[in-house]
Amino acid sequence: MKISVISIPVQDQDKALAFYTEKLGFVKKHDVPVSEKHRWLTVVSREEQEGPEILLEPSPESFEPAKTYQKALLDAGIPYTQFNVDDVQNEYERLVNLGVEFSVKPTEMGTVKIAVFNDTCGNNIQIVEML
């Protein structure tokens, strides 16, 4: 068994696609209409394009419990998911220069260094560097 797709709830698929590709550097993998308003829209790591896909899922719009859960996590400052990076400080500086807003600046926590940013689509996302 292996991970092929994980989903991140997003409030607007077009805005999410722009953020995840233009700011974070992911690459669009699939963009398939599934209704008049929604698409099966995935992105992948530029470095691992055959690896796991992130589904930018419009569930907060069409499924109220997902909207409630997403808002509760955001309001509590809890990251929805995390991405590993080689150097949190460098990635933090790169993203800040692109206008990304961080709620947690690079912080060492035991064997990791973390930072948390807002993905502009309703989620806190944590980046992690293994020390």
From TrEMBL:
<keyword id="KW-0560">Oxidoreductase</keyword>
<dbReference type="Pfam" id="PF00903">
    <property type="entry name" value="Glyoxalase"/>
</dbReference>
<dbReference type="InterPro" id="IPR004360">
    <property type="entry name" value="Glyas_Fos-R_dOase_dom"/>
</dbReference>
<dbReference type="InterPro" id="IPR029068">
    <property type="entry name" value="Glyas_Bleomycin-R_OHBP_Dase"/>
</dbReference>
<dbReference type="GO" id="GO:0051213">
    <property type="term" value="F:dioxygenase activity"/>
</dbReference>
<dbReference type="InterPro" id="IPR037523">
    <property type="entry name" value="VOC_core"/>
</dbReference>
<feature type="domain" description="VOC">
    <location>
        <begin position="2"/>
        <end position="130"/>
    </location>
</feature>
<protein>
    <submittedName>
        <fullName>Catechol 2,3-dioxygenase-like lactoylglutathione lyase family enzyme</fullName>
    </submittedName>
</protein>
<keyword id="KW-0456">Lyase</keyword>
<dbReference type="GO" id="GO:0016829">
    <property type="term" value="F:lyase activity"/>
</dbReference>
<keyword id="KW-0223">Dioxygenase</keyword>
